[in-house]
Specification:
Elements lengths: L1 H18 L12 E5 L3 E5 L6 E4 L4 E8 L2 E6 L2 E6 L3 E3 L3 E5 L6 E3 L8 E4 L5 E5 L6 E6 L2 E6 L3 E2 L4 E5 L5 E4 L8 E5 L4 E8 L2 E5 L4 E5 L3 E3 L9 E8 L6 H11 L4 E5 L1 H6 L1 H9 L3 E4 L12 H19 L5 E2 L8 H5 L10 E2 L2 H4 L2 H11 L5 E5 L3 H16 L2 E3 L2 H4 L2
Parallel strand pairs: 22-23, 22-27, 22-28, 23-24, 24-25, 26-27
Antiparallel strand pairs: 1-4, 1-7, 2-3, 2-6, 4-5, 5-6, 8-11, 8-14, 9-10, 11-12, 12-13, 15-18, 15-21, 16-17, 18-19, 19-20
Helix pairs in contact: 2-9, 8-9
The chain binds zinc ion (ZN).
Length: about 400
């Protein structure tokens, strides 16, 4: 009897904790998530003097901001962090794709408390960087860690708000959830999912769940290109080839991203200015194309920072993306960056075969919506391939955008 009582008691306690004594309840619209902009220290409030180092891009729930310090929740702990280490970021929207409805845990461990469960095909907000296995997400009032493998990038469809009324946007896919905004009738929105009558849409001012029945497919004449790819050119600028590439891109109204080598920027600043002024994105590709993972920290930093400085001095603004030479990076490299690290999804191997036909083939074989294509604007053969690449893909309905626009 005693044993039964004990078990019952335990179950009640756990249920009680779960339902009623959850440490914090929030109104959906009030929740603010911030991430660390650098390595920072978290001071645990409950266990005095317990200081936990946090890596860059750690997601934290903001509880209260006071005089230089912000009270935050980190995993299951409440504590403080210096406000200067935090910034509010817009989340990345991810689609829940799994075999079973995945759990959201209170820490990055399957044995920790379960904060909630997510519907399949729902869209969640993702914050901060993922560890190998877990990432921080928010869905309405459910916040915590989910296994990274349960999330994929959603595909997008352009829809129009039917009317006659404006569209009510809610925090989650539930009619009684908080209203977070409205979208006027006849406006176009981007739909990221449609589940059980609810669509998740994003627009300029508000993103959230709406009744799918209040949307209609955008008329064909108004269709915004749904297929986007990012062409990227590394190792330039080159005095001759880069200019040819710019000319061909302009002909097709295509935007691309150029990952520049600092020492070449110094030699050919006019070409970099022309690239930037034509609306292309400028990325950092180190000072002299060093393999960063083999360098001591000081030299690694110098490679990145000196290139940042010379780009800023040349075009008047910072590089907005970074790509490591040879695709070689580790956690230390990432920690030195103020901008996203961008790899690629299609390697044309243009530097190796130097054959325009092979460059075209590599792309045609693998291209799909969201592809990031790696090429080099220091080889004549790459410039020679570009006209065919652009005309073929444009006919297939692809739009050519910068890396940042693609990954927005
Ligand atoms: Zn390179």
């Amino acid at each position: 009897m005693k044993k039964i009582f004990f078990s019952l008691f335990t179950v009640l306690c756990i249920t009680g904790l779960f339902l009623f004594i959850a440490p914090h309840t929030y109104a959906t619209t009030d929740i603010v998530i911030k991430t660390t902009i650098s390595e920072a220290e978290f001071f645990d409030d409950a266990i005095q003097n317990n200081v936990i180092p946090l890596s860059k891009n750690t997601a934290l729930i903001v509880l209260l901001e006071t005089d230089g310090w912000t009270k935050v929740q980190y995993k299951e702990m409440i504590g403080f962090i210096k406000s200067e280490h935090l910034k509010a970021i817009s989340p990345q929207y991810m689609l829940v794709k799994a075999n079973n409805t995945p759990h959201v845990y209170s820490t990055d461990s399957q044995t920790s408390t379960i904060n909630g469960q997510l519907h399949l095909n729902s869209i969640v907000e993702m914050y901060g960087s993922a560890t190998e296995d877990f990432v921080f997400v928010k869905y309405g009032q459910i916040m915590g860690y989910i296994e990274t493998q349960n999330l994929v990038k959603p595909t997008t469809t352009t829809m129009t708000v039917k009317g006659p009324k404006d569209l009510v946007v809610r925090a989650i896919a539930n009619p009684s959830s908080d209203e977070i905004g409205q979208i006027p009738k006849n406006k176009q929105v981007t739909m990221l999912t449609n589940l059980a009558g609810w669509a998740f849409v994003t627009s300029k001012d508000v993103s959230g769940y709406v009744l799918a029945s209040e949307l209609k497919k955008t008329a064909p004449s108004k269709v915004i290109s749904m297929k986007k790819i990012a062409l990227t050119f590394d190792d330039g600028p080159h005095p001759k080839v880069t200019m040819q590439i710019l000319k061909t891109l302009e002909k097709y109204d295509a935007k691309a991203t150029f990952f520049l080598v600092g020492q070449e920027v110094k030699k050919y600043p006019e070409i970099v200015k022309a690239t930037f002024e034509a609306g292309h994105e400028i990325g950092n590709h180190t000072y002299n194309h060093s393999k960063l993972t083999t360098l001591p920290l000081k030299q690694m930093r110098l490679q990145i920072q000196s290139t940042d400085s010379i780009i800023k001095a040349t075009i008047g603004q910072n590089a907005t993306v970074f790509r490591p030479p040879y695709g070689a990076y580790n956690k230390t490299v990432i920690n030195q960056l103020n901008v996203p690290l961008t790899m690629w999804t299609i390697d044309t191997l243009d530097w190796k075969h130097r054959d325009p036909k092979k460059t075209v083939q590599a792309i045609n074989k693998q291209v799909k919506n969201g592809s990031i294509i790696l090429m080099h604007d220091i080889h004549q053969t790459t410039a020679d391939a570009l006209e065919t690449i652009l005309s073929t893909l444009q006919k297939q309905g692809y739009e050519f955008v910068t890396v940042s626009e693609l990954t927005q």
